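Field guide to reading this record: the first block holds the primary sequence, the second block holds the structure written as discrete tokens, and the final block holds curator observations. Each block starts with its own label. This record concerns ABC transporter substrate-binding protein, catalogued under organism Pseudorhodoferax aquiterrae.

BLOCK 1 — SEQUENCE
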Amino acid sequence: MHKRTLLQLLAATAFAAGLPAAQAQPAFPHQPVKWIVPYAPGGTTDVIARQLAVRMGQTLGQPVIADNKPGAASIIGATFIARSAPDGYTVGTVDSGTLAFNPAMYASLSYDAQKDFSWIGGLGKMPLVLAVHPSFPAKNVQEFLALAKKTPGAVSSASSGPGSPLHVALELFKQKTQADILHVAYKGSAPALQDLMAGQVHSMFVDLPPSLSMIKAGKVRVLAIATPERLAILPDVPTMAEAGVPGFEAYAWQVLVGPAKLPAPVVERMNKDLGAALANPETRAKLEEIGIQPMPMTPAQLGSFVASEQKLWSGVIKAANIRLD
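BLOCK 2 — STRUCTURE
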């Protein structure tokens, strides 16, 4: 009996000694990571996510799997990210529309752009260019503005839809130049570009990834690019400052976030691996050749950047009275 009691005591002691190890959480990551993409497969957002997900999976040691949840101006995907468990296994892309435009255009949203996300890092910028039909008489921005001011409302400019980055860029341009330009909204950039190439509209602010091949083929003509410096892929195109519109910068941007309250070690690990993916020469070259500028940032830098963009674009949107609810 004494022997049996001793064995039971030893077994209980061994079990108790093993409890901390059994209950300890495995190191991150110990399972695949889901990357939410708030747009349909095949678009620019999807391309960026899938390029970087492959590289991050290699350094994280777990697959990073893109999961498309398109719809409602990125609101569906953003809400899914915000409501996910803060464990690092669900992260995703949000963009200028998600964080800087929607809060100013909707009276209520299913996510809070300032409180519902953990900042992980920047992904990329898509510079915007002012393009016209090849037959349009203006050969530069100043001639374009002269025509717009001579016949107010007669010069038209397409966008991919109300409240889109292309529309908001147009409104900022109008506010900077005091030009009366007719906004023509389409359901997406593809039909807008088709009508620009057909001469149905005079102009359009376009982002480079979907339009670069058309620009190089001469199907549309670019007057200026809305970046501080000229781009290597369009070396002959002046910046807006060079073209006589100082202080005008506009681009669509995308960043990687998780739900609020992600543990700091998880954020640090993912930021490190995202930075390595963006620095990979092959990945960087693939992004740059289609007009995407890699945008690495620390979580702190990203937080400051988002706050600055929210302040800028909320002012533009309110001045233009853009409402989507």
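BLOCK 3 — OBSERVATIONS
The two ends are 78 Å apart (CA to CA).
The chain has two domains: 33-125+252-320, 127-225.
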